[in-house]
């Protein structure tokens, strides 16, 4: 049955335990969303992820597939930690998220990406956007999105197969950019390539099928960036090298 999802508990690890603790604290409002995002990166930095997830990353690359490491689905919230495989010359079309907090961390390969802030609603079907990143995320680079921070992005593997660690949690944002109408949990397609002015881009909501047809097999640079980011802000990083242990 399409879209049927179940709980997964594949990667029992201190990292998952730590992340579950952070989600609990976010749910109780003991952490704000920005604090939560910082704590996720801090957890990753102490987790020696490339060593611990090495066999899983190899499996994704060898078998060209994703791997769900952990998933919990509850009535009002859910979260997933997964490795996502991107085939060379394929893109995840531009999309926005509803009530969703996420971190992507490039584990292998290179991720070509554009990221946007949402500035304002124009109509039910269009949003004013501002590009904030247009470049390549290398191994160890991260993208973080939340309701009011870099909510729109578009990414692709263009030079080599790419694997990234995706962590997303739905349902815990205290307020949302738009009312909850016709929104999918998680990902909704938006086209940032058709209009704007000298300072802003107008993003038009489109069906995911149309977005796939337009963007999934095309390099991002086939589509001119309507407005250049004022400052191409570099992503936060998680070093792939294990931390030196104290003697
Ligand atoms: Fe996304």
Report on the structure:
Strands 1-2-3-10-5-8 form a six-stranded antiparallel sheet. It has one domain: Jelly Rolls, CATH 2.60.120.10. It has 247 residues and is an alpha+beta fold. It is built from five helices and twelve strands. A hairpin with a 2-residue loop joins strand 6 (111-123) and strand 7. The model has no long low-confidence stretch (mean pLDDT 93). The longest helix is centred in the first third of the chain and has 14 residues, at 14-27. The chain binds fe (ii) ion (FE2). Fe (ii) ion is lined by residues 95, 97, 153, 187.
Task: Please give the structural blueprint.
Elements: E1 8-9, H1 14-27, H2 33-45, H3 49-52, H4 54-63, E2 67-73, E3 78-86, E4 90-98, E5 100-108, E6 111-123, E7 126-137, E8 142-145, E9 152-157, E10 162-170, E11 186-191, E12 201-205, H5 208-215
Helix pairs in contact: 1-2
The chain binds fe (ii) ion.
Features:
247 residues, alpha+beta, Jelly Rolls, six-stranded antiparallel β-sheet, six-stranded antiparallel beta barrel, 5 helices, 20% helix, 37% strand, binds fe (ii) ion
Provide a brief overview of the structure:
With 247 residues, the protein is α+β, with helices and mostly antiparallel strands.
The amount of helix comes to 10-25%
- Shape verdict: globular
Q: List how many beta strands DSSP finds.
A: 12
The low-pLDDT segments are: none
Heteromolecules bound: fe (ii) ion
- Head-to-tail CA distance between termini: 53 Å
User: What's the architecture, going by CATH?
Assistant: Sandwich
Task: Report mean pLDDT, rounded to a whole number.
Answer: 93
CATH homology superfamily:
Jelly Rolls
**Given this structure, which CATH class is correct?**
Mainly Beta
Element order, helices and strands? Answer: EHHHHEEEEEEEEEEEH
Largest sheet: 6 strands, antiparallel
Strands side by side in the biggest sheet: 1-2-3-10-5-8
Helix/sheet category: alpha+beta
CATH topology: Jelly Rolls
Q: Give the count of structural domains.
A: 1
Radius of gyration: 18 Å
């Amino acid at each position: 049955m399409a879209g049927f999802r179940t709980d997964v508990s594949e990667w029992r690890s201190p990292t998952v335990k730590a992340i579950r603790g952070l989600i609990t604290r976010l749910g109780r409002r003991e952490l704000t969303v920005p604090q939560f995002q910082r704590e996720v990166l801090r957890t990753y930095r102490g987790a020696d992820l490339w060593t611990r997830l090495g066999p899983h990353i190899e499996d994704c690359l060898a078998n060209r597939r994703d791997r769900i490491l952990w998933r919990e689905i509850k009535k009002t919230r859910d979260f997933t930690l997964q490795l996502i495989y991107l085939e060379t010359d394929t893109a995840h079309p531009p999309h926005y998220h509803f009530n969703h907090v996420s971190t992507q961390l490039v584990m292998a390969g290179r991720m070509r990406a554009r990221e946007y802030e949402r500035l304002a609603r124009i109509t039910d079907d269009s949003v004013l956007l501002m590009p904030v990143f247009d470049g390549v995320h290398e191994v160890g680079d991260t993208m973080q999105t939340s309701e009011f921070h870099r909510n729109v992005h578009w990414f692709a593997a263009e030079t080599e197969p790419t694997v990234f660690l995706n962590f997303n949690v739905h349902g815990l944002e205290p307020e949302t950019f738009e009312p909850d109408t016709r929104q999918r949990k998680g990902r909704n397609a938006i086209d940032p390539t058709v209009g704007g002015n000298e300072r802003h881009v107008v993003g038009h909501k489109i069906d995911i099928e149309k977005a796939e047809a337009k963007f999934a097999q095309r390099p991002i640079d086939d589509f001119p960036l309507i407005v250049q980011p004022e400052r191409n802000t570099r992503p936060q990083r998680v070093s792939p090298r294990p931390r030196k242990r104290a003697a």
